[in-house]
Amino acid sequence: MKSFYTRRVLSVTIAAAAFSYFASSETLVAAGPATAPNVTYTASGTFGSPKSGSDLFQLQGQPFSISVVANEADVSKNHGPQWAGYNALKMTGTVQSGLLPTPLAISNSSTSIELATGNPSFDVFVLFSPVKVIGITLTISATLDLPKTALTNDHILPFAAVALPKTSSMSYSDGTNTTELYLTGTLVAKVAGGATSQANVVLHEAGARSISAHADGTQSVRSIGAAPVDLGVSSDVVALEFFAAGVRDGSAIEVRIAGQSVPVLYAGAAEHFAGLDQISVQLPRSLAGSGDADVSLTVDGQTAEPVRIHIQ
Question: pLDDT for 181-232, tens place per residue?
Fold first, then answer.
């Protein structure tokens, strides 16, 4: 975990881990809670490979979505030069574990966050929230280094969508063992009743899979990260499925693989995971034997960082 100033950056949530962001303030806001609007911070993404420890709850490669609600009139509970902290915030979310057949709902009413804007290279967001997962009480923490100026000031205010830096990570502990996982995802904040900032377009590498439809009516599913993409026999139809962000409201969506535009079969919300998008494309047989190939997603002129796959 990173540190800023002399404070150790702490934060938490089981998927909370991943991404709720807040701007904090050491300045009182004039409006009261009765008149000031709520600001909802939502984040969605995928848990990456373990940075350290053993992934006891099998979160690697699994998607998550969380929301944290604050009010513009909230006053920081503690603060220092260019950082502030809030607590007693409501967090809700959905997390998938490899140990469970269905997504797991999580919630906490005593979530706390800290925000720091004084680092010359990046802004810092941390989250802390004890949650119960599979009947076990865990303390989960996340430390996120945001692009500089992502947080415009020291108030709790909305901000444009931010793609999670590759260095972002979260940790969880069962009281004995601690695991730290890398994170991939997008965060966006909006005011209740106001317009939502357009999400950055993100194509997630984790969780990607290939689905082959065979002539006999059966299907086979393989993780793209676990093995090369196989186009099979000539009668097989192969689709690639990726988790994404910024897709569902797009009007012009294009996916290119090895520079070739491919048919988009589905682009929209991911089933079972609020806030997370999904895109599925058909893999043309002309790409067989391509080897390493970049998958590029463009939505309304905005192109995501490509994902590398291997086609045998």
Answer: 998 888 777 776 544 444 578 888 888 999 999 999 898 999 887 789 999 9
Q: Is 17 helix (H, G, I), strand (E, B) or coil?
A: coil
Cβ–Cβ < 8 Å for 262, 293? no
Strands (E), 165-215: 169-173, 178-191, 202-203, 209-213
- Label residue 254 exposed, middle or buried (CB < 10 Å: 0-12, 13-18, 19+): middle
Structure tokens at 246: 């910024």
Are 139 and 170 in contact by the 8 Å Cβ rule? The answer is: no
Domains of the chain: 3-199 (no CATH), 209-311 (2.60.40)
**Three-point CA angle 183, 280, 43, nearest 5°:** 30
**Residue 272 or 143, more confident:** 143
* Chain Cα centroid distance, residue 222: 22
